[in-house]
Design goal:
The chain has helices spanning about 5, 20-25, 35-60. It is mainly α and about 60 residues long.
Length: about 60
């Protein structure tokens, strides 16, 4: 059985705490002096997705 068949993508949710400026950077607002805001925000999201994916795999085993 494929992973998609187990649970539709629209039902999966994650929670990530971002600063106001990180959230703005992800919406497309540019911070020429601090491109790191967008990079940090994307890293937080990716890290949380990886953590939840690992947790779900442990639950399945």
């Amino acid at each position: 059985m494929s992973y998609e068949a187990q649970q539709p993508a629209q039902e999966k949710k994650i929670s990530v705490e971002l600063t106001w400026n990180e959230a703005l950077a992800l919406t497309g607002v540019r911070f020429p002096q601090n491109h790191q805001l967008e990079v940090d925000a994307m890293h937080k999201i990716k890290r949380q997705m990886e953590e939840q994916f690992i947790d779900r795999r442990k639950d399945l085993q």
